[in-house]
Amino acid sequence: MARDFYETLDVSRDASKEDIKRAYRKLARQFHPDVNKESGAEERFKDICRAYEILADDELRSRYDRFGEAGLNGAGAAGFDSSGGFGDIGDIFESFFGGFAGGATARRGGPMRGDDLRFDLTLEFKEAIFGGEREISIDHLVTCDTCRGSGTKAGSGPVTCRTCSGQGQVRQARRTPFGLFTQVTACPTCSGTGEIIENPCPTCNGRGRVQRSTTIKITLPAGVDSGTRLRVQGEGDAGMRGGPSGDLYVYLSVRPHPVFRRDGNDLSSIIEVTYLQAILGTTLKVETVEGFQDVDIPAGTQPETVLTLEGKGVPRLGNSTRRGNHYLLIKVIIPSKVSGEERELLDKLASLRDEKIAKKEGLEGLLDSIGNLFH
Length: 375
Ligand SMILES: [Zn+2]
Ligand SMILES: [Zn+2]
Description:
The chain is α+β, with helices and mostly antiparallel strands and 375 residues long. Among the domains are: 257-334, HSP40/DNAj peptide-binding domain (Sandwich), CATH 2.60.260; 338-375. 27% of the residues lie in helices and 29% in strands. The strands form 7 sheets. Strands 10-11-17-14 form a 4-stranded mixed sheet. Strands 1-9-8 form a 3-stranded mixed sheet. Strands 2-7 form a two-stranded antiparallel sheet. One zinc ion binds at residues 161, 163-164, 168, 187, 189-190, 194.
């Protein structure tokens, strides 16, 4: 049984969009299958993505609030298997709304839209930042070439279903403690189509569609992130009886990077400098997502200082000319051991300071000679 989406994200039912986003980010990071190898983490990650997908969308969230998961009617990710799951959900809606949800699928012999499909794709860190193209191979139902989707053998046609006399629906009266309920369900003989194929097409066994593996090229926009969902129109399952194809939804997750951390459109990394570099200043080659670049570490840089490389972060999704920043956190490394020579110089420096006779140039000269030990 699926958990409540609010519970999954550990937020209250009146949580703001910001709260939901924050909770999602935190959990997605924690349970991402690339990071978390515990059993069940991947399932949990998928649940988290699914919950976020619904709760982040105003319309889906309000439908979910009013009707629960049944109200989503297959929107977004998981959808449901129309052969097994549909009946129950159809029943619920039939009883309450008189055919609201069931209509599209159970309509007698009418066109039926194909199911949406989900594909999970893991991207490399920089691929997500700069975008690109990817070929993916998907299994989906396509219209049968032999019968062009009719499901019938050449020269024959469908006949009216005898169970429902072509209505596509059967009515059942059921006595309950609350009174008599009339339930309308899809006809089990013809699955609601109102017609039966007596001479089925041999290629598709009368289904009108066949499973096929297709390679499609998808364009990844710059700035996508874990949880981003791309819609590829018409690449879901083929429709039936002339109905449109469903869509393919590509759910992205991004592999973490050993050097960079990402927070929205900003990046951060840690830079280590020696205590002498921090005191005297230096220029370092620093790794950015575009390669190495020179960064000036000013003299007198304090531990935990944050330097900003403006516009070196992640492009905004949909407006890639605007980019976030890359923040460099400076770690000053204090050696736990020093060589004899270095120690001598440091002692001398200490005593100079103690005697308060150290002139500025004198100190710097000494620090430079310690610095030279490293070169
Ligand atoms: Zn066929
Ligand atoms: Zn029937």
